[in-house]
Every structure is written in structure tokens, then in C-alpha cells.
What does this fold into?
Amino acid sequence: MKKIFFNKKIMKKLKQKKAFTLVELIVVITILAILATIWFVWYSKYIWNSRDSARVQALKNISEALTTYWISQNTGLPLPDDKIDIKVWASWSEKTIAYQWKAWKNVIEQINYSTEWIDPKDGEYYSYYVTKDKKHFQLMAFLENGTELKNKTAYKTPPLTPPPTGEGKRFLPQVYAATYEDRYPTVWWDKLWILTDEENTPIEDISTIQTAWELNISTTTETYIARLNDNEEIIKWTGSTLAQINPKASCKRIYEALWKRDDWVYTIDPEGNWTGFKVYCDMTTDGGGWTLVKYKNNLEFKQQFSWWDGWKWLTNNFDFELTNQQIEAIRKVSNEWRQKYVWLCNWVIHYYYSSWNSYDYAFWFRFFDWAESPHWTNSYSPYDIKVIQDWCKSNWWENWNIEKATIFEITGMSLPIINVYSRDNWDWWEKFWSPLLDNPAMFR
It folds into this structure.
């Protein structure tokens, strides 16, 4: 009887013990899930960073190997294995300006790089872009966590010209592509505008281009993205706008791609015809890279109009050092335009006249494309003309110096100015003068 009673007692105590409730189980499972998620995110980030570090190190090593090869060989940089010819239209014919494809086995062998150069995740070779003269190159990889690598730098080494102090590698923000989803394209070395399509696919992976083995950026109707080195420096367009990627297209491209920083006369090649012509490049004003279109002569100090009263264009259009074809070629590859026009006031009534009538803003311009700024109005839209100094409005016996001039600042795309229109008031002392040589049109 005691044994039975003892067992019942034990059973009663056992029945009184509490088990885990459903809520407690859910809390525990949730905590474990959170910990697992944190661990997974941390581990994924670790893996991303590890692979990105491998990519960055590979780009660095290959860049150094390519530079060493360029220094040691008289033949220039190696061409991509199966190159895509990047072309532009020039003087009614096609001209190749660069090549792009993978830096595949032949390139690796030529530069004696011992390690296979492939992406650690998908096994793809990295994109490789070379200029026609085989003196400049650019590389592209796709990162998984680019924000962790912003402080990495890629400097050139002598005898290639180094970038200015403080400039180095910068990374593009996140973009998406069918084959590189959630990846960050990063480009290294020269600023040569490596090409992808809108979906972030390098052009060498696009089937239609693979079939043709070429891409004419002047005539294509498809949209492509030319990548320099960050989101503010891309060209996303069709046709002739993409011709700006030519590394000698303008002073701006010479500044970007060839690292020239001195104000000097350079040969530019906006049409990609490999002959080019000489221009003066302003590499220091307002960020540098301005291509100057200079006049041949100042506007001569003399009576320009006839002896009868009326509105007239000046007798002759202004002369430029460059031909009209060369000026037009510069305009086509430019995104910014500006010019100052200075009218010195001595013995001239050109801007405001009130002897019989009041003619406010009685002065306007004819531009290179033969557009004419509005007249009889104080609004110069859409030609972006501002009067930033106005000493000639009363214009009576002022000195021949720029401190006493009327200065127009023009930032419209119709530049440069080829002629001006003003009022002749039949006074014998009306002499018109403008220092054109000191105020060229500037493009970049």
C-alpha cells in the first residue's frame, strides 16, 4: 500500500510541473531566427567583402602589369583577345577610336600575369578597354558591396602621367542588370568611358554586337552608357553624343583621359579621323578642360556704320582661327558653352539711346548657327545672355578700358558670336570697338 501511495504522490508532482507555452516557443524561435539572420547578413557581408577585395586586388595587379608591359614594350598595350571595334563617323567614313572586350588568356599571357584573372563569383573575365593608339586603358569589374571600398585608390605610375594630388579611385552607386543583379560597376585607371548597355551589360556580352564585332557610337539608335568613374560622369544616350568618349575629342577629354593639366596648345580630334587640329586648351579656369575658339582680330576701332540713322549689322562677320567645320565638330562633342562679349564705350552709342526715343537693350547678336538673339526687349531667353556690367548705357565719352565697358555673358549653345547688331545715329564720332581676342568662345 505504501508503494502504491508513493507512486501516486510522485505522479501528482510530475503532473504539476509546467511545460513551455506556445508564446514562449515563438519567442525563442524568433530570437534564434534574428540571431541566424544577423549571422547570415554578417557572413554574407564578409563573403562580399572578401570577393570584392579579390576583385580590387586583381584590378590593381593587372593594372600594374599592363603599365609595366606598356613601359617595356615599343608596341603599346596588348589588344583585347576578340576585340569589339568602337567607331565614329568622320568625314563620311568610319574611324575606329578604341577597342573593348574581355582581358582574356592572351592578354594575361602577354603581360606575364601568373594568376588567372576572373571574377571570384561568376568566373567571368573583366572588361578591358584600349584606345586606338594602344597607350591608354580602362578596366571594369562588378562589386557586391562597393560602399566598403570607397577609400581604395588606383594611381598611375611613371612614366605614365599621374593624376593630380587627391584624385584616386571612386566608385559608382548601385545599379542593376540581368546578369549582375545588385552589383556595383567600378572602373579603373584612365578615364576612357567603358561601354555597357542600359541593363549594365558590357558591350562584349551583347549578342548583336558580338555578331558585328563593332559598334559605331555616332550612328547607333540603341542607348548605351559610357562610364567614366562615378554617377555624375556617365553619358547615357544614342548617336553622336557618345562621340564624346573619344580621348582626344576635346580639351575636356584630354584633361580627363590623358591627365593634361597645363594651359597649352593641344591637338584635338573631335571627329575621330586621327588627323585632328590644334586649339588652345584652358586647363585651369573653372575646373579646366575648356576648348577655346579664338578670333583672328579685334573689332577695329573705327566708324563701322554709314552716315544715316538706323539699325544695322556690322559690315562683316567676325573671323576665327578655326574653320567652320572644325568649330562645328567642337560644338558637337560639347555640353557646356560660354563666352563674354565686351563692347568698349568711347564715342559709341550702341546700348541705350534717348535723343528722340528710348531704346533699352538696343543691341543683339548673331550666332554661329545663324540664330539671332531677341531685340526690342530686355529678355534674352533662350539664349542665356546676361548683362553683367553696363557702363555704356549712358556711354558718353567713356575711356577705352574694360572697366568702363558693357560686358555680356553668354552661356547659350548657339555660340560663338559671329556678328552684332546695333543702332547708328549718324554722329561722326560713333566708333565701335570690341576686344575679341581676349574673349574667345569656350566649349567643354
Notes: The chain is about 20% helix and 25% strand. The helical segments are 2-16, 22-72, 105-110, 207-212, 251-257, 324-332. The two ends are 108 Å apart (CA to CA).
